[in-house]
Structures are given as structure tokens and as C-alpha cells.
TrEMBL record:
Single GO molecular function: metal ion binding
Pfam family, one: Ferrochelatase
Residues engaged in binding Fe-coproporphyrin III: S67, Y136
Organism expressing this protein natively: Demequina mangrovi
Protein name, entry field: Coproporphyrin III ferrochelatase
InterPro entries with a match to the protein in the record: Ferrochelatase, Ferrochelatase_C, Ferrochelatase_N
Binding site for Fe(2+): H198, E306
E.C. number(s) listed in UniProt: 4.99.1.9
Gene Ontology terms describing biological process: heme biosynthetic process
Amino acid sequence: MTLPPLAASSRTLPATTYDAILLAGFGGPEGQDDVIPYLRNVTRGRGIPDERLEEVAHHYRHFGGISPINDQNRDLKAALEAEIAKRGLGLPVYWGNRFWAPYFADALKELHADGHRKVLVLVTTSFSSYSGCRAYREDLATALAETGLEGELELDKVRQYFDHPGFVNPNIDAVRGGLASLKEQGLLEGAHVMFATHSIPTAAADVSGPREALPSGEPVATGGENEWYAGGGWYVEQQRAVAALIMDKVADEFPDVPWSLVFQSRSGSPEIPWLEPDINDAIEKLDDAVKGLVISPIGFVSDHMEVAWDLDNEAVETCEERGIVPVRVPTVGVDPQYVAGLIDLVEERHVATPGDTPREREALTDLGPWQDVCPTDCCLGRAAKATIANA
């Protein structure tokens, strides 16, 4: 499929000198007493009663009320600090979340109190959507207003990095490792790869990314009986592109392995269309010849609750019911390539001295490098918003 041209790569900001980094996360509960207050934060404004929230809470209850995501971000913060020290950049790293402590407002107050004024923001999402990009920008703007720090702190966000080598290469390694595992078990001939990402409402997918050019919307089938969402929106197109790239890179060792892009973790009213197929439905519809399944959580950067529950429990159970051997490969987490890639993104934007040459922008698909500046119509979402609890 030929895609129309994008102006994303031309919407860049000149490199400048920053004095701190903010690691922006989603947040998650850290004990049983936190679960319902956390879910109230995530669903605020949607009028969902606690009784309904408790239906979701059992995922967290199963793990002692603790989401892995906060510890994962603590580990990522430490890894980023080590990489920054290795490169001699001298940038301190702060951490704030949208929906649980440490909140954005607390992180901004700490940054300001420590004397920082120009901050570069690293967000723990790689693909373009309202919930994955614009909502972070809006919530940071709200936190600036609520803390009275507008005009006192300048916040700039790095670009979406779905096709940056630091994100893509660890995922290539993971899929290659998953297929190697199936080969060792004698299951390569009946192998399939599923790339799992968070479902969002189709209305939100249609308005993801900039509006000046859209994916063609033509149905695409690759490597077998794959059926993808064929509407507009760069959220899905970015993931298609990265999944196809990964499979191309592993084809030297594992040629002709069929694969598909599937979705998980939908929430909200059943009357509202969301991206499909759900991973469990897709597993149930696999051909009987499929004996081994590599599950790659391509849409996530850490093994947080929705990976641990929706994939390691529900999807694995569905595989077992079908007699399929599942291999769920890891997310990028704190893989050294990913950590180094995030600091490469910092060095695209940060120079020690104004006028210095920044790092060259890298992208492994024809879609990137993605934009620094989002147009006003990019990833529209308040009207079609569905808050995604990726924690």
C-alpha cells in the first residue's frame, strides 16, 4: 500500500539547551487501598460507580493491589540516569504520573523548587493517539496552570518514537527469540506471530495523528489470513508499519511466518465500536495448523498490568484451550537499546551549548521521524475520548 506524504518530519523544533528531564508516566496503584481511588482518577468525569470499578479492580486485587508500572518506571528512571551520566549530559531526571503519585503537579513543583526552568519531557508511550500523546500534553498544561507555574516552567515533549531504532530493535530481538523458542520445541512449522496493542475506539483511531494526510484505508492482508482495521488513523498505521518491519528483519532466519495485528484491553460501553479483533477472538479463530504462537506486546513499553493480566493470563488461557503453545515475549522495559534510544531522542533536542549540532534524527519506517510540534487537529480526542488504563 502506498501512503500519502506527511509533513510530520518538517514539524521539528530547533535544538536548544535544557536543564532537566521529566519522565512522564501513567501511574498505578501500590496497594489494595489505592485501587479504587486510582480507578476513580482514571475514569474521572465518566460517571462510573464504584461497583463497576470493582469489576476492573479484581485484576489489581489478583496482584495484591499493586500495578507493576511504578516500579518499572523507577527502574527506567535509574537506567536513564545511568545513561545520561555515561554520556556526560548532566541532566537530572524527575518522574511524574497522570493518575497516581507522584503526580505531574508534584513533579513540576519539585522541578521548579530545584531551580529548573526548561524541561524536556519523555513520555512512556511510543505510538500516536489521543491517550498516548495529546492527553499527556493537555494534562501537563493543566498541571502548570494548577500549580501557578505557567510562565515559570517551559515544557517540551520529545516526538513519538514508534519507529526509532531504540524501540524497534529490542522488539526485533524479542520476536526472534520467541520464534527460536518455538523452533526448539519443534513448533516452527505451525508458528504464528501476534502483535498486540491497546484497543481504542474506532472514532479515536480515525482522528489519530495529523489530518493533512491519512492512511489510504485499503484493507491489507500479509502472511496469511490477517484482517486489519482498515479505517483512517495513524495509530493503527504506525503499528502496522513497525510490525511489518519486525517480520521483515526476522525473515532471514524465520521466513514466511504468518502474523497479525490484534488488540486488547478494551473498556467502556459495548455500544461504542473499538478496534478489533480482540486477541482472544483472534486466537480462537486461528487455523488448526497453528501449534505455536508468539505474542509480542508491541503497543506497550513495559510489562505492566495489562500485559501481566490480559496477555499472561487471559490470552495464555485461550491458547491452552486451543492446544496452542504460547510464547509471550517481553516489552522493551529497560533494555539497554531502548534506554539508549530515549537518550538519543533527548540529544535530538538538547545541546550543551546553543548552536551546537544535535543528534541526527533516526527512523526505520517511511513514516518517521515523527513531529515535535503537533497541529491543532492532531489526535483529536476530547469528544471521542476513552481513557485507557494502561497500567
